[in-house]
Structures are given as structure tokens and as C-alpha cells.
Design brief:
31% of the residues lie in helices and 17% in strands. The chain is an alpha/beta fold and 673 residues long. It starts with 11 loop residues before the first strand and ends with a helix. Keywords: Flavoprotein, FMN, Iron, Iron-sulfur, Metal-binding, Oxidoreductase.
Length: 673
């Protein structure tokens, strides 16, 4: 069978070696690098992606020395005895027919410890630790440490290394006038600022010889004030190519940039244009990155000549067999990354092990194991939201006979509301994936089918799993039943009319979603040009760092987002995406108010009290987004009838709508039942 993705599956000849396709698995720190026996788990993690057909894997960042570590106990490759654990990874990947490079990452001023160093003593806005300015001796030693790390990586069996020169880490800090205020030969002119990158590549090439892949992560768009110019990006690209680099990988934005680069509201392939522009100036293969999550998007980038390879990181967390499925023309069966960041980046920045919201087995390949059952059970699952879907598919794939019931006319549960939010269009993909997986796993699906305790207890089931989700919490406020009061389901499910001036009670994830829904006429996520203007991405590259003034956004409504807590509004949102949601609503003039006491609703609007002062918000509509309660009325009735019953997802814990926990609970129960 011929694949539909001809460009994606064309081999790439690097001269001394060949990559079997054009997919590079981008670098991701997983947290396993620092865990006890973590490299055994890392080996299983990378081997699964190699088995899935990836052309070239790049590991998470490994520091060349102590000061460059991500954290005090961050992973480092600097001693001969470090080699053995890395060899576990390379041997596992090679056994599956894959190739793997180790990323060498010196964090510079992003190091989360007090021993950090940088070109100049300038503290990063996202880090409490101020770095020490490096002496020339330290700079020269660091160059040697990069070469040493590359040589040790070669001894460990890696096929190459990636040198992290972007995202605002040490090398990038030297290159940009924003962070390099030196007056010696390592600062000032661009020639001096780029010297560290070039000398590192030269030293690595000399240490490892000619037949070893060197990928350089080139910051093509810094997206910060006083970043590099386009001409400087090209000059550096040509210089590192001349110094011995094999492949140029794109780097987009610094971690401190106020432009989102990978969250779900960023359009697919939003930055492939800059890779295409740079590629025209270079002669070695160039890799496109960021928000490439389907084979169709990847194929178009390659077919249009925008890049020689495509990098996907989180999409290969979501589905390790992405490449193999695409090669078999089974794109509809790919578990698509929805770019939520909740279980991957958010976990890493909280010093927890990374995983994936839609694939809880990611980074748990050797622990969350699904073996065929010795004896099949008849299992009823009530609720076809994320928890019920994951459990039903996993249990059926193990060999159980599964009936899945839902009172709605479609599967998806709360995802059917999330997919309507501008910027969350990717949630459609998860529902599509589960629809196909239900068929393949043989789950018997019964929609428009509400079950009673009598139905389930008389159905001959060995186990009943309740994934019945949540119901909105009701508030006890005078006037809460007025006609001008709606619940979030009235808005997102029933599409009831909403006035021009709106007060939202509750500023958790649901409140933010409803605010986004009510203030957006059409989603900029579906239009790259419009999105770039809104966030100030300069596609003409006339400004340093590719950054220009952000465009103003129009909102069709005036919205007040209110919460009882006195903490910052939105403080509980995702660590790596919450700021995007806050900034988006701020652009649209949404007023966010904390420390609110709700007094009453009248025909005039919502009466509130803040710091002892009562005031009227003269709104047309009040929307209640104040949390949920578990929907578990079947549970007690089934237990009384002696039925073996399990609660998962929102029916178990109705905190903020937590699909990450719900899907993981479904998977873990399916593995053990």
C-alpha cells in the first residue's frame, strides 16, 4: 500500500547516514531523567516511539556541566560513569530500528538554582535566581564541556547531538543584545555575540569526527525585545553550517516571551513561514517546528518546500505510533495532541513527571501496562465522557466485553462544550479518535440510553463503572432563578441568547472558557495572519526579535469575570497556558475582579460587595460558572443491590473539569479490573 504522505516518508540522506523519513521527535524533558531508575523508564519511552517509526529522536535536555543544569539535581553528562545509563536508551532505540540524538542544554540564566551563570548579570523575569556573569575562563571551559558531553554521548551510542541554541537558554543569551551586555570579545558586535555558538560547534565537530549528526537549534524568532534581526539569524545559520552542523532545527520564542508559541490557541504550523524563509538561505536540511500535529499539516509543509523535516514533540507523547499510522494511511486513528500542556509542560515546570492528557501511558510505558485478560468479564460503563471512553476502550482491548451507555446523542461528554471555545478546536480531534477506537476495540455503544439501577443490576454484568460526570453547582443567592440568570450549560450546550453586558460568577477554567466564548466573534486560531497580528508576530521581520506592537481586539460584549477568592483571577489555570488566557481576555477588555461577595440578582443586574462596599453591575445577563458536583446518584442504589461498582472521572471527584485525571483514572482501572 502506498502512503498518501509521499514527502513525509521520503528518506533523508545526510551523506554518512540516512534517516528513513522526515519526522524528527522534538526534545522534551520528561522528569524521568532525574528519577531513580529513570533511564530504564526513559529507554521504554523512547523505544516505543522508535517502534512507532520516528525518523530521528532528540532527547530532553542534558547539561554539559553542573552550572548548566535545569535544577540542582538536573541531568548532566560530564563523567565517564554517566555513559552506562545513557547506553540503556540508545540500545533500546536501536533495537527498534530508530536513531537518536542527545540534546545538550546549558540553561544559563534559566537555571533554577543559585549557581547559574550567563553572559551578563541580568535576572530572567521567570526565575528568582540572578546569574553570575561568566568570566572568559568559564566561557572557554564551557565550550570544552559541550565537546566533552558530545564525545560521551557518542560513547553512549547516540547517533548525534542537538545543541540547544534557542528558547532563551545560554547560547541564545550570548547571541542577543537583550541579555548580552559584555564589552569583551564575547559581546558587543554580532560577530562577538555569535562567537560562543560557533566555537561550540567547531569543538564538538572536532571531538566527534565527521560521521556524527550535529543538530543546531537556531532561534529563528526570539519574540522578545532586543532579540536578533533577520539578517543576524541568517548570518548565524550560515556560520554554524560552515562550522560543521548537519541539520538546522527551528527555535521559536523564548520562555519569557509574551507571545504564545505552542498552546492550543496557536494556529497549526503558525511558524512554518520563518523556517521556509531561512531554508532558502542555507544548504543543509532545515526542520519546521511548533503546532504540527497531523500528517496532513506535516505533508503540506514538506510539499510546499517550507522545510526538509518536521519536528513533533507532544504529538508523539499523545500517540507513539503516529508515524506508523500515517504510513498506513490511518490518520483517523491517530490520538491527536490537543496542545493543552496540562500533563506535559505543566508537570515539568512543577518538577513532576511528564505524561499526556489524552495518553496517560506516556512516560509510564513500563508501569501502566495493559495485558490480555485471563478471563473476560461483562462490564457496563455509564457515561461516554473522557473517563468512560478511556476505560471502555482499554478494557475492551484487554479482552473484556464492554457495553457503554450514555443519555446523550453523541460521545464526548464535557469535551463537546470545550470544543466550541475559540482556541480549543483541537478537542474535536479527541472525540474523532475515540469514535474510531470504540469501533476498533469492539465496545458496544448505546447512545440516547439512560440507565437505572434496575437496568444495570439485571443486565448480568460482572462490574459496573460509573463515569457519569458532573452537574453544575447551584448557588443560593437571592434572585438566582431570575430570567436573566443562565448556567454555563445554557450557554455552551443549549446556546440560549446572552445579552450585551454579562457578569460571570466563577473564574475557574469554565469561567475563562465562557468568557472567551462570549467575547470572540470568530476564532483567530483558524487564521494564522490574523493571529500573528493580534499577538504582534512580525512576519515581515522588520523589527528585532520578529516582534511588533500587538493589534487591538474587538469584543462583541462587555464582560465581568468574578470570583469569591481574593487570589489573582486565573491563578489556578495551567502554569504554561494560564497567562495566555488572562492576556487574551485582557485584550478584549474583560474586567477580572477578585474578592467578590454576591448579594443578589435583580432585573437591574448583579449586586456585589467588594471590600465592604456594595455596588451594582448593570448587566443584561448573569452566567453561573461556579463549579460542579459529582453526578453519582446511581452509585448508592447499585451498591444496595450488591453490584460491584466503580466511580471514575467527575463522578468520583468534581473539581475543575479535569480530563487529565479522568482519563488517567479510566486507564488505571482498566489495567487492573
Amino acid at each position: 500500500m502506498t502512503t498518501k504522505y509521499q514527502h513525509l516518508f521520503q528518506p533523508l540522506d545526510l551523506g554518512f547516514t540516512q534517516l528513513k523519513n522526515r519526522v524528527l521527535m522534538g526534545s522534551m524533558h520528561t522528569g524521568l531523567e532525574e528519577e531513580k531508575n529513570g533511564f530504564d523508564k526513559l529507554a521504554a519511552f523512547y523505544a516505543e516511539r522508535a517502534k512507532g517509526g520516528v525518523g530521528l529522536i532528540v532527547t530532553g535536555g542534558i547539561s554539559p556541566n553542573f552550572r548548566g543544569r535545569v535544577s540542582p539535581f538536573g541531568s548532566e553528562l560530564s563523567k565517564p560513569w554517566h555513559v552506562a545509563k545513557h547506553r540503556k536508551v540508545t540500545e533500546a532505540v536501536h533495537a527498534e530500528g530508530g536513531k537518536i540524538c542527545m540534546q545538550i542544554l546549558h540553561t544559563g540564566r534559566y537555571a533554577y538554582h543559585p549557581f547559574s551563570v550567563a553572559p551578563s548579570k541580568i535576572k530572567a523575569p521567570i526565575n528568582p535566581f540572578a546569574p553570575r556573569a561568566m568570566s572568559e575562563r568559564q566561557i572557554l571551559t564551557t565550550i570544552r564541556h559541550f565537546a566533552r558531553a558530545a564525545k560521551l554521548a557518542q560513547k553512549a551510542g547516540y547517533d548525534g547531538v542537538e545543541v540547544m541554541g534557542s528558547e532563551g537558554y545560554l547560547i541564545n543569551q550570548f547571541i542577543c543584545p537583550r541579555t548580552n551586555k559584555r564589552t569583551d570579545r564575547w559581546g558587543g558586535s554580532f560577530e562577538n555575540r555569535s562567537r560562543l555558538a560557533i566555537e561550540i560547534i567547531k569543538a564538538i565537530r572536532e571531538a566527534v569526527g565527521q560521521e556524527f549528526i550535529i543538530v543546531y537549534r537556531l532561534s529563528m524568532l526570539d519574540l522578545v525585545p532586543d532579540g536578533n534581526t533577520y539578517d543576524e539569524v541568517i548570518a548565524l545559520g550560515k556560520a554554524v553550517e560552515q562550522a560543521g552542523v548537519t541539520i538546522i532545527n527551528s527555535g521559536i520564542g523564548w520562555h519569557e516571551a509574551r507571545v504564545p508559541t505552542i498552546v492550543t490557541s496557536v494556529p497549526r504550523a503558525a511558524f512554518s513561514w520563518i523556517t521556509a524563509k531561512v531554508r532558502q538561505e542555507l544548504s543543509i536540511p532545515v526542520v519546521a517546528v511548533n503546532r504540527i500535529n497531523t500528517p496532513e499539516v506535516a505533508e503540506k509543509i514538506l510539499a510546499d518546500g517550507e522545510a526538509d523535516m518536521v519536528s513533533m514533540a507532544r504529538p508523539l507523547l499523545a500517540d507513539p505510533h503516529f508515524v506508523a499510522k500515517a504510513n498506513r494511511n490511518e490518520a483517523d486513528k491517530i490520538n491527536t495532541c490537543i496542545a493543552c500542556n496540562q500533563a506535559c509542560l505543566d508537570h515539568v515546570f512543577e518538577n513532576k513527571r511528564a505524561s499526556c492528557l489524552v495518553n496517560p501511558q506516556a512516560c509510564y510505558e513500563s508501569e501502566l501496562v495493559f495485558t490480555p485478560v485471563a478471563q473476560a468479564k461483562r462490564i457496563a460503563v455509564v457515561g461516554a465522557g473522557p473517563a468512560g471512553l478511556e476505560f471502555a476502550c482499554r478494557a475492551a482491548e484487554r479482552g473484556h466485553h464492554v457495553d457503554l451507555f450514555d443519555g446523550a446523542s453523541d460521545i464526548g461528554g464535557q469535551f463537546n462544550y470545550a470544543k466550541q471555545i475559540p482556541g480549543k478546536e483541537e478537542f474535536h480531534e479527541t472525540i474523532r479518535y475515540f469514535k474510531n477506537r470504540l469501533v476498533d476495540s469492539g465496545v458496544n455503544v448505546h447512545l440516547n440510553s439512560r440507565q437505572t439501577a434496575d437496568d444495570l443490576s439485571s443486565g448480568g454484568y460482572d462490574e459496573v463503572v460509573l463515569a457519569t460526570g458532573v452537574v453544575p453547582r447551584e448557588l443560593d443567592i437571592p434572585g438566582i432563578n431570575n430570567e436573566n440568570v443562565l448556567g454555563y450549560l445554557d450557554v455552551l450546550r443549549d446556546h440560549k441568547p446572552v445579552g450585551h453586558k454579562v457578569a460571570l460568577i466563577g473564574a475557574g477554567g469554565i469561567g475563562f472558557d465562557v468568557a472567551e466564548y462570549l467575547t470572540t466573534e470568530h476564532s483567530p486560531t483558524l487564521n494564522v495572519r490574523e493571529w500573528s497580528q493580534i499577538w504582534g508576530v512580525d512576519e515581515s521581520y522588520e523589527h528585532r526579535g520578529g516582534l511588533m506592537p500587538q493589534a487591538t481586539e474587538h469584543s462583541p460584549r462587555e464582560v465581568w469575570l468574578l470570583q469569591r477568592k481574593t487570589s489573582k483571577v486565573g491563578a489556578g489555570l495551567g502554569k504554561t497556558s494560564g497567562w495566555v488566557h488572562r492576556a487574551t481576555l485582557k485584550k478584549k477588555g474583560v474586567e477580572m475582579i477578585a474578592g467578590v461577595t454576591y448579594k443578589k440578582v435583580t432585573d437591574e443586574g448583579l449586586w456585589i460587595e467588594i471590600e465592604g462596599t456594595e455596588q451594582l453591575l448593570a448587566v443584561d445577563t448573569v452566567v453561573v460558572c461556579a463549579g460542579q458536583l459529582p453526578q453519582r446518584e446511581l452509585h448508592d442504589a447499585l451498591q444496595e443491590k450488591g453490584v460491584s461498582v466503580h466511580l471514575i472521572g467527575g463522578a468520583d471527584v468534581a473539581a475543575e473539569l479535569d480530563a487529565k485525571r479522568a482519563i488517567r483514572q479510566g486507564a488505571e482501572l482498566a489495567a487492573s479490573i
